Amino acid sequence: MSDYDLAVIGSGPGGQRAAIQAAKLGKRAAIIERLELVGGVTAHTGTIPSKTLREAVMFLSGWRQRGFYGQGYRVKSDITIDDLLYRLQATVGRQTEVVQHQLTRNGVTVIRGRAQFADDHSLTITDSLGETRTLRARHIIVATGTVPARPAGLPFDDKAVIDSDGILDVDCIPRSMTIIGAGVIGVEYATIFSALDTKITLIDGRPSMLDFVDTDIVDELRHNMQNRGILLRLGEDVSGIEITSDGDTVTRMTSGKQVRSELVMVAAGRLGATAELNLDAAGLTADDRGRLAVNDHYQTSVPHIYAVGDVIGFPALASTSAEQGRLAACHALEASCHSEPEYFPFGIYAVPEISIVGKTEQQLRKEGTAYDTGICRLRETARGQIQGTSEGLLKLIFGIEDRKLLGVHIVGEGATELIHIGQAVMAHAGTLDYFVSAVFNYPTLAEAYKIAALNAWNRMS
Questions:
Q1: Alpha-carbon distance 89 to 84, whole Å?
Q2: CA distance 122 to 283
Q3: In this predicted structure, what is the pLDDT of residue 2?
Q4: Taking 60 as the threshold, does the pLDDT of residue 362 lie above it?
């Protein structure tokens, strides 16, 4: 007999949803969590803290009102790190309470400790006192998330040179900051701290940023960042970082350029948190970035062991991780379930936000699909004028032959909420005609869909 039908390592969104799904199916489910509180990376160092920090910055800096009252407008003139952390800690505390309540209410057993595979059906769990126990399960799901990558040769001291988790532990808001890595995390923090008037330099060895995002959206974001004084050093590799005698940093690039700043944050990707799992005992092997390979059902090379969330790589979102956990649990326990990954939205919580669903122009050109586009600048809407919106756009892509909506791409405040209209239309095979005939509340930013659709209709007609 196994102790549990399903054991999940990690209590982030993927682990939570998997365990709760198993419990709802009447199965015995357990979560093993190494931290004192549940929630995983998402609740403690990732999604919830970074998005809470963003919201605090947007409010206290008066960012949303500057369109009317000028760039010098502030709600609070002397914002401190304590102002930001107060809201962050309150939000994280509430979120962990909600997660714990959901697990308890659904009858999921939560076991504190570090899990390692003893064999492909058994886990050895070591608690904070060093005491161990062994747990057996018919099925196991790895949902351990990721840790920041720390490239060799960089002088991390967790004060002047930090990783992306360390940004939550800084003593004060830096006047200047160098960010290495123009991926999602690097772009988010670059724009968030820029809203606090921190002087930002963003460095990346790649010639462009956010390669998976539609080029029109990236161009809009890049223009916005440069207008705000963010210095972009794309196509530049870092050769070294020096911590000066006065505590500042000097970041040198292979081109000979260098930049001095109070703080360097390295956002050079993340590694799957699998190093301590003793994967060999279960017959598993991670890749060079600690990630586990899975099939369409999230099964690893050992069929009764699954992996979900950031530990399997892209898209590494809290929302998709949760759905992956649900699907993995259903498959393991032979329950019927359905999902449509091609319609999962992607959100980037930069300032301004970016959200996308469906295909980009780059993808459609590569596939040879005939398409046309429609665009609306958010300032064209009455709601945009009321809010003082001066930036942002919504772009729709339609198939030429059937007029179906193929992609929605948005940059601007509220993008991660607006995207769901397009997501719903795409999931139901909606066409250009839906938007042309639809009536939206007035005034709303959602009207941008109709304006963009009419723009596309003019071109396609």
A1: 9
A2: 12
A3: 67
A4: yes
Task: Give me the chain's average pLDDT, please.
Answer: 94
CATH number at residue 358: 3.30.390.30
Q: Give the pLDDT score at 183.
A: 94
Alpha-carbon span 62 to 174, nearest angstrom? 19
How confident is residue 342, by pLDDT bands cut at 50, 70 and 90? confident
Tally of domains within the chain: 3
pLDDT band at 417, cuts 50/70/90? very high
Backbone torsion region of residue 368, taken as left when φ is above 0, otherwise alpha when ψ lies between -120 and 50, otherwise beta:
left
Q: Which domain holds residue 452?
A: 352-460
Residue with tokens 């160092």: 45
- State how beta strands 132-142 and 4-9 pair: parallel
Q: Which two tokens stand for residue 84?
A: 């930001």
Rg (CA), the chain: 23
Question: Which residue pairs from 170-175 have beta carbons closer than 8 angstroms and sit at least 24 positions apart in sequence?
Answer: 170/81, 170/263, 171/81, 172/80, 172/81, 173/79, 173/80, 173/81, 173/84, 173/198, 174/198, 174/261, 174/262, 174/263, 175/199, 175/262
Asked if 53 and 85 sit in the same domain, the reply is yes
User: How confident is the model at residue 257, as a pLDDT?
Assistant: 96
Three-class SS state of 357: strand
Side chain identity, residue 391: E
